[in-house]
Amino acid sequence: MGKGHPHRSLFLYNVGRSRSRANPSMSFTKIIERTANHVKAALSGDGSGHDWWHIERVWRMAKRIGHVEGADMLVVELAALLHDIADWKAHGGDSSIGPTMAMDWLTSLGLDSNIIQHVGQIIADISFKGAGVEEPVLSLEGQIVQDADRLDAIGAIGIARAFAYGGAKGRTIYDPATKPAEHRTSEEFLKSDGTTINHFYEKLLLLKDRMNTATGRAIAERRHRFMEDYLQRFYEEWEGG
Ligand code: ADP
Ligand code: NI
Questions:
Q1: In total, how many domains does the chain have?
Q2: Ligand 1 atom closest to Cα of residue 54
Q3: Residue 229 sits in a domain of what CATH number?
C-alpha cells in the first residue's frame, strides 16, 4: 500500500464505497449465485491453476477478510468470483480481456454502473506481474480480493499450485545452476521459463510483504513459514538428507 504513483486507469470509475443497491429487481444472494454458476461453467476443465476450486477458495477468503475489514461485500464477492474469468498470461499479456468479460457479465445482470466499473477496475489491477513491476493503488475492496488471491498462491496450496503449473508448462522442478530472476517488466515475467523452485523466489516468497490488510498479513505469515520449512526440507533431501 501507499505506493504513491498515479496509476493510469484502464477504466473510468467511481470508487465511492457506497453500498449501492445493485439492481432493484435482483437480490444480493441471487446476483452472487448466478455469478458463481456463470464462473463455474466458464472455468470447468481449466488445468492452469485457475480452476473453479481456486475461485471458490479466493471467494471464501475474500468474504472472511472483507467482513473483518468492513468492505462493500457485493463488490468484494463479485470481484473474487470474476477475477480469473480470463487470464492476461493466457492471452499473450492482454490484460483487458478479463475485466471486459467480467463487466459484460455484470452488465447482462443489469447492475449499477458504479459497481460494474469498480469490479472491472479491481480485476484489471490485482494480478501479480513481476517482482519489479509497479503496483497500482487499490480500493479497500481491491486490496481484499488481491490479498485473498495471493494467499491462495502461498502455503501448502500455493506449493501444490506452483508444481501443477510448472508441470503443465513442462518445467523442471529444480536446477541448482539456474538462479532466480527479478522481473522488472510484465513481459519479462510472462516470458520466464525458469524452474518451479525459482518461482518461489520470483513470486511466492515476496507475497507476505505485499499484503494489503492486517487480516491478510496474519494469515500470510503462517503460510510463509510453511513454505520456508518446505524449501529447507527440499534442499536437504536434494543433497540426500
Ligand atoms: P493468480 O493470477 O491467480 O494470482 P497466477 O495466474 O499468477 O495466479 O498463477 C496461478 C498459479 O500458478 C499460482 O499459484 C502461481 O504461483 C502459479 N504460477 C504462476 N506462474 C508460475 C511459474 N512460472 N512457475 C510455477 N508456478 C507458477
Ligand atoms: Ni486468482
A1: 2
A2: 3
A3: 1.20.58.1910
Can you tell me which atom of ligand 1 is nearest the CA of 153? 14
Nearest to 200 by CA among 220, 221, 222, 174: 174
User: What digits encode the pLDDT tens for the residues 5-38?
Assistant: 434 333 333 344 445 556 767 899 999 999 999 9
Q: Taking a C-beta distance cutoff of 8 angstroms, is the pair 72, 141 a contact? A: yes
Q: Which residue has the cell 519489479?
A: 132
- Nearest CA to 54 among 81, 34, 33? 81
Tens-place pLDDT, residues 44-75? 766 555 789 999 999 999 999 999 999 999 99
Which residue's CA is minimally distant from atom 9 of ligand 1? 49
Residue type, 90: A
Does 172 lie in the same domain as 127? Answer: no
Give CA–CA dist 201/198, Å, rounded.
Answer: 5
Q: Does 125 share its domain with 53?
A: yes
